[in-house]
Amino acid sequence: MALASAYAMALLGLKGIPILVEADISSSLPAFNLVGLPDASLSEASSRVRSACSNTGFSLPARRITVNLSPAAVPKHGSAFDLSIAVAVLCAAGQFSIQHTRSSVFIGELALDGSIRRVSGVLAMVLAAARAGFEVVYVPTANLAEASCVEGIRVIAVSHLGEVLNGFGVSTKALRSTEIVNAPAMVTRESQTLCMSEVRGQAEAVDAAVVAAAGGHHMIMVGTPGSGKTMIAQRMHTLLPALNQDDAIELAAMRSLVNRQSFDTLDYAAPIEAPHHSASMVSVIGGGSGVPKPGLASLASHGVLFLDEAPEFSAVTIDALRQPLESGDITLSRATASVQYPAKFQLVLAANPCPCGKGQLKADACQCAERIKARYLAKISGPILDRLDIQLSVRPVSATVLTGDSAVVETSLQLRSKVAEARRRAAARLRQFGLSLNAQVAGSVLRKDLRINAGSTKTLDEALQRGRISMRGYDKCLRLAWTNADLAGRNEPNSSDVAKALWLRGVASQLALSRG
User: Fold this and answer.
1) Which pLDDT does position 467 carry in this prediction?
2) Which of 108, 225, 418, 509 would be 357's cystine partner, CB 3.0–4.6 Å?
3) Spatial distance between the Cα atoms of 229 and 5, rounded to a whole number of angstroms
């Protein structure tokens, strides 16, 4: 048989595209040509495939071999096509029947001895194969755990090209794989050591974190160094409910794209990403050469993106978060491809009041000039600040709180149960609007369908009339009031819920004054 085919998968972001790998063997001068828009690493597949076949006991014919990757207009990247190319070429050489390959997808990189090595993005490829109607997918043994997360398709793990051929009834050399498979330990909710009960003397800040978690609100904390801002933010994700099946698979697929070997089964714990302030915009938003990869904002989807020392970040990096904060996704457009990744994260910022950090202490403690303070805080732009529902001032903790007996602080597990119950109440109320979190509710819905009693919003209305808050701030206070009511088990916010919402928005005016 001089012409044969097999199927592989190309990825554009999380979207998988079935690729028909066609192999033709003609009676021309010996050559191995690969066409169909391959990148550099894929173009080198001809050498890997020839050596792998030879070391498995099959020398390719000394004729012209042409491999076409169709559709030709779709960019193909990486070495995951090696196995499908080898199967198509050996099938064209008459080693086994073409019927074996029409319902199967082959994924894997070949070593020179025929071993099949781990590749990135396998979970997204298997998902795409299942949705495209394929029955079987062959994956490297090292990728079996993530591939097995997908239902509706049979997953076969192989560690050597000979195993694939043996499955088709072809006798091969004794298998010898050099691939070392290490199954890394999965980080589960139970193994996490961080707990909100470790935070002492900041009951108001912890309560604000609970409100943020319950309603999906973004938050900024401003306070002196050592006041507990980082401790609270690092534990925010422990308050979030476990991910559902679809969200866990989506997150695992993105981790697989960037080759994070962080699980041996699905991890249902809400993620947290906390980049250093020197992180580039590409690392946070996503990008890179070839097809853009997801950044930390996408890897924090359904969890928390924490920017500590926020004013030290590049202003361009912080401002790049505007669009995903509103839409919940990130679109990365390049000359070669345009891809979209989810970015449904909760943004948590922590900042000092000034470069020296002593701006909230006694008057003579801070030595920063007013213009220095203004330039420091101005790195967090007004549009970003306006998108943060909770703007909290965190005061230093006194020595008596740390050394004396204090009230027992609830654990993250206890607080998470409260958050889960509040989210259930919100989801039941918002189901008619196709929403699940208070932070997602549009202003028009808040002022019409979910209108609060006029007596309860009197303080809020006065703040709007006096110019203390903008109309956007007014809507955010209404969202916070609904979250406060959900946490308290009330069917509608009362005046105390509204007053607490105004307090949670209290840092905005302070930052505006600090900018002079």
Assistant:
1) 80
2) 225
3) 58
**Distances in whole angstroms, Cα of residue 331 to Cα of each of 287, 298, 502:** 10, 11, 34
What is the rounded CA–CA span in Å between residue 134 and residue 186? 29
4: left (phi over 0), alpha (psi -120 to 50) or beta: beta
Q: What would the two tokens of residue 399 be?
A: 């020595």
469-472: long-range contacts at Cβ-Cβ below 8 A with a sequence spacing of 24 or more?
469/502, 469/505, 469/508, 470/386, 471/443, 472/386, 472/443
Instruction: Say if CB 234 and CB 308 are below 8 A apart.
Output: no
Work out the average pLDDT over 477-495.
95
10 Å Cβ neighbour count for 461?
A: 12
Q: What is the amino acid identity at position 362?
A: K
> Where is the domain boundary, 106, 133, 167?
167
Per-residue pLDDT reduced to its tens digit, 312-349: 999 999 999 999 998 899 999 887 778 999 999 999 99
Distance CA(292)–CA(13), nearest Å, equals 7
**Structure-model confidence comparison of residues 261 and 169, the more confident one:** 169
Q: Considering the domain boundaries, does residue 179 fall inside one?
A: no
Domain count of the fold of the chain: 2
Which own/partner pairs from 409-412 qualify as long-range (CB within 8 Å, at least 24 positions apart)? 409/196, 409/197, 409/199, 409/200, 409/203, 409/206, 410/196, 410/197, 411/195, 411/196, 411/197, 412/194, 412/195, 412/196, 412/197, 412/235, 412/238, 412/239
Task: Looking at the structure, tell me whether residues 219 and 365 fall in a common domain.
Answer: yes
Residue 260 has pLDDT above 80, yes or no: no
Please report the pLDDT score of residue 360 as a whole number: 64
By residue range, what is the domain housing residue 16?
A: 3-167
What CATH number does the domain containing 232 carry?
3.40.50.300
pLDDT (tens digit, 9 = 90+) per residue, 132-156?
Answer: 999 999 999 988 888 988 989 999 9
% of the chain exceeding 90 in pLDDT: 56
- Return all residues near 434 (Cβ < 8 A) that are at least 6 apart: none
- For 383, residues 6+ apart whose C-beta sits below 8 A from its C-beta are 319, 322
pTM of the model: 0.86
Question: Residue 465 in 3-state DSSP?
Answer: helix
Name 155's bridge partners. 137
- What's the angle, vertex CA 468, arms to CA 466 and CA 471, rounded to 5? 95
Q: Which residue has the tokens 């030595």?
A: 367
Tens-place pLDDT, residues 454-481: 888 888 888 888 888 888 888 999 999 9
Domain contains 374: yes
Written as one letter, the residue type at 209 is A
